[in-house]
Amino acid sequence: MSAVRFCADKDTGVAVVTLNRPERLNAVDGDMARELAGIWGELRFDDSVRAVVLTGAGERAFCTGIDRDFAVPQPSSPYMQDDPLLTVGPKANDLWKPVVAAVRGMACGGAFYLLGESEFVVADTTAAFFDPHTTYGMVSAYESVLMAQRMPYGEVARMMLMGSAERISAERAHAIGLVSELTEPGEALDAAVRCAAVIAGYPAEGVQGTVRALWAAKEAARAQAFAQAPHLIALGNLPAERQAELFAGRRSGQFRVR
């Protein structure tokens, strides 16, 4: 089974990209990372697709970040750290067509690589946003940088520092601007497709130029912050064995929703 589903409506010009590992809460493994990069690259050359919707399969999660069973060997030097999630987003693959994210259920950790490279987010009332890095002795670096460009500083700082103890509800995410539209359960995908269809109906050159301009407004700050991320991660992360112990000892249901 493919880790990512892809379908395009040639009449509307809208493609829907679906993270397709619902049994793993759409966590990203090597196959998913490669398939996403391949799809974004393919879309660069498909002029019939003028807008994209990104969503997750199943009812429980949009994406829960990197799969803990997906081992990524790392060199000892902090100057050569490898992060497979840096290649999963549309902007990382030089795709400047608008991407609308449709979120149902959990979106946490590495999901922010994808949300951070989407133009805006539509979510239903089951959505919940959090970042568990600090809980498990890990630095939230790339995730924090991306979300700091989408949310007020105090809100993103609280989300990152509170770890798995607290989740931002869909209603709160909408109030602070992370989510642009809130729908009833199960309706986020349809709402996102409707937005994408409107955008796809406009001249592509103007739309894509606007996407590029919007990204340029924050690109320099993001690049400078990303340059520091590998060193911060290498310095601040607990050893992998200790992270695994903390992760194995987690208790479900011990969190607060706000």
UniProtKB/TrEMBL annotation:
It comes from the Bacteria. Transmembrane segments: none annotated. Gene3D superfamilies: 2-enoyl-CoA Hydratase, Chain A, domain 1. PANTHER family: ENOYL-COA HYDRATASE (PTHR43802), IP11341P-RELATED (PTHR43802:SF1). This is Enoyl-CoA hydratase/carnithine racemase. Belongs to the enoyl-CoA hydratase/isomerase family. Pfam families: ECH_1.
